[in-house]
Specification:
single chain, mainly alpha, 0% strand
């Protein structure tokens, strides 16, 4: 959430805005579970050769 405090705002207005933000519950971000995808993609051939071939496509 973003709070905009303008230059001319009174102290009471700033306190009101900050209280509004302080009362909001913090929701943790979802974590990406990379471990569940580990080893699921199967490649045929040498990974280094595949990488070189993919990089050469741009030229």
């Amino acid at each position: 959430m973003t709070v905009v405090i303008k230059k001319g705002d009174s102290k009471e207005r700033m306190d009101e805005l900050l209280k509004k933000v302080a009362n909001k519950p913090v929701v943790p971000a979802k974590k990406f579970e990379a471990a569940k995808f580990s080893g699921t993609v199967k490649f045929e051939g040498d990974p280094l050769e595949i990488q070189k071939k993919l990089r050469d496509e741009w030229e």
